[in-house]
Structure formats: C-alpha cells, structure tokens
Design brief:
globular, alpha+beta, 22% helix, 3-stranded antiparallel sheet, 114 residues, SMI1/KNR4-like
Length: 114
C-alpha cells in the first residue's frame, strides 16, 4: 500500500455514520466473537468508509469465509478488495485475544501468491 500522504489523497472518507455500542454487541453476538477493540473504536468514532483507498467494512457488511476458503474458513472479513485485487484483511475468531485485540491477517485472493 502506498503512502496516502505522499500521493496527496484524502486519508478517510466516511460512507456510514458512527455506530453505537448496541450495534457492535449485536454483530459480536451474531458471529460469536469479540471484535478487535481498535476496529470497534474506529466504528464508534468514525463510522465505516474508505481509508487510504481501502474500504473498511460496516458491521452490516461483515461476513465470515466459508469452507471454500480452506484454512481461512470462519475468518471474519474487516476490509474487502484490498488494492482492488480481491484481497482481504480478516480476523480469525479462534485466535486468542490479547488486551482486546486479535491478530489481523492479510488474505490473498490467490493462495499460491507469496
């Protein structure tokens, strides 16, 4: 990802207004997982939108990957279509939470890519 500052791009463009805590709680209950605190903070204060050309998913846009995604089955997608090539940024609900956070994964649309 190139630096938004050096390209003179707007850093963040809101598409949806901030959410409230009950909306986050409902999404967490639907997925049976605690979303990362940093993601919740972002949605609570800024809403969802596009950050440095990357779409940050609104709670209504979250989905988990199905069995077609092999070892990524069950991952919850937070950012879709990274770099415009179909890559994803996701969390694995099975990962251990450390101080309110979970590891975040960059998932290539091409599993054979390095």
């Amino acid at each position: 990802m190139q630096d938004c500052f050096s390209q003179g791009k707007q850093i963040y463009v809101a598409e949806f207004p901030p959410v409230n805590a009950s909306e986050i709680e409902m999404a967490e209950n639907d997925f049976g997982v605690n979303l990362p605190d940093s993601y919740k903070h972002f949605l609570l204060h800024y809403g969802s939108g596009v950050w440095c050309d990357e779409p940050i998913a609104h709670l209504r846009e979250l989905y988990d990957l199905d069995s077609d995604n092999l070892e990524m089955e069950g991952f919850i997608v937070l950012v879709q279509n990274v770099r415009g090539v179909g890559d994803l940024i996701a969390i694995n609900p099975k990962d251990t939470e450390v101080v309110g956070e979970k590891p975040v994964y960059y998932c290539s649309h091409d599993p054979s890519a390095i």
